[in-house]
Amino acid sequence: MRRNDRRDLGLLLLRLGAGSALAAHGAQKLFGWFGGHGIAGTGQFMESVGYVPGKASATAAGLAEAGGGTLLALGLATPAAGAAAAGAMAGAAAVHAPNGFFNQGGGYEYAATLGLTAAGLAITGPGRLSLDHLLGHAVNRGWMIPAAFAATAAGTAVVVGARARRLRKAKEGEQEALFEEEYME
Question: What is the pTM of this model?
Answer without folding.
Answer: 0.89
